[in-house]
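Data card: per-record layout.
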Amino acid sequence: MIAETVCSAVSAAGLGIAVVTAYRKRFLAATRIAAYSLVPVGLVMTGVVGWLADTAFSPTAWAGFGVLGAAWLLFVGTRAVERRRGGTRAERKADRRDRSEAVAAGASAPSLGPGPRSATGSATAPRAKSSTGATDDFSDIEAILKKHGI
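The structure for this 150-residue chain is written out next.
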């Protein structure tokens, strides 16, 4: 009963503000204020306010909200653990299987196709790697790292 009275008073005050706003020649704003002020009366007429008032003072309803909150916390907690682990156990197993199938057996082997052709059309002979060639490559990398202080 008191909730309905409060809603009616809020609506009457809102309509009064809408009239004053319309008097100031701000018709669009006045219409918007009138629409907002009619919402509480509409909620009273549909029975939503009575239902909310009964729910607000019901210990069973508050216990239900507590149970829903606990369920939500459990869902959020399990999701956080899944993200930290990288998905569910089945998803991780499927990812490992997909990764192993995605790489072909000889994918990391170098290509042994013909080298670049010269102007005469013959293939150039591939250079044999010497043992110093590998060392030179690493010395270049070491020099770059030393230059940056690493």
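Known properties of this structure: The chain is about 75% helix and 0% strand. The radius of gyration is 38 Å.

See the next section for split statistics.
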